[in-house]
Amino acid sequence: MNNTLLELKNISYKYENNLILNKVNLKINSGEKIALLGKSGSGKTTLISVLNGTIKPTQGEVKLFNKSFKELDRKQRRKITTIWQDLRLIEDLSAEQNVNCGLLAENNFNFAFKNLLNISSFEKAHKYMQLCRLHNSIYDKKIRKLSVGQKQRVAIARSLIQGSNILLADEPFNNLDPKLITTIKNLLLENVNKKNTKSPKTILVALHRLDLLNDFDKVIGIRDGKIFFNIKRTDLKKLHLDKIY
Which CATH architecture has domain 80-163+166-199? Predict the structure, then answer.
């Protein structure tokens, strides 16, 4: 039985005559926890943007659930959620409103309107915010008044509340202290009781730090837009890292 959720076939992406991704082939299977390694500028963020459909490749095909992205409607594409490196929060909304925005894909305009007016229930949002160690004193504060670390966790809670099949994360541990890094890593990789909350079973995380690789199943190394290795984490050796750093 084919358990591939997301697939890239011969993907290249060019921007202003610069080849950012070069003939990338990749399969992400159900339940995999994948770490994506590479220097800044290696193509990690662009690869994530192609995987979630934000960027259309110059060449090749992206398939989700064995269907081309072109065949999928907006709701089907929302089966992928992303934690962006730049967070993409709405500064003038509260922390809880931003987390609730993760529910907009599966709700109608009335929900969106109530969310903006602070009428809708935030019970579900608060549950995910608690998991991300966000104190109730900041729930109704505007994003622009929060610390960088608090914003990071609001973005993570917003992604998790979507209950999607696949989570893509671009440096999600930035701006967190060591204790919080452990908490959030365990949360994303399901090494923690989630209090009856749902989160993606399949995860790809772009990382810089090699000390965070424990608990990942696979490691992908990218340099100059090319994948140099795609191996089990337990098979990772210095010779692999020398290829990408």
Answer: 3-Layer(aba) Sandwich (3.40)
Cβ(221)–Cβ(239) below 8 Å: no
Domain ranges in the chain are: 1-35+43-73+218-245, 80-163+166-199
- Measured between alpha carbons, how far is 112 from 122 in angstroms, rounded to an integer? 13
User: Whole-model pTM?
Assistant: 0.91
DSSP 135-173: -GGGTTSBGGGS-HHHHHHHHHHHHHTT--SEEEEESTT
CA distance 43 to 50: 10
Q: Say what the alpha-carbon torsion angle 156, 158, 159, 164 is, to the nearest 10 degrees.
A: 150
Helix 178-188 to helix 148-160 angle, to the nearest 10 degrees? 10
Residue 199 has pLDDT above 80, yes or no: no
pLDDT, position 104:
75
What class does CATH assign to 1-35+43-73+218-245? alpha beta
